[in-house]
Amino acid sequence: MLAMRDDIYRAMKRGEVTIAVLADFSKAFDTVSYSTILRKRDRQGFSKDYL
User: Fold this and answer.
1) How far is CA 38 from the centre of its chain?
2) What's CA 34's distance to the chain center, in Å?
């Protein structure tokens, strides 16, 4: 977050426009079973370290 803040300050000093798009996905997976997520992760070739 500090890096983002610093980038915004630098852009403002240069007169640039800054836009931030933030998304909260914390509840997005509440309705999906954990085993389904793991199966899809494995099928896509992601390492087990990702979850």
Assistant:
1) 18
2) 19
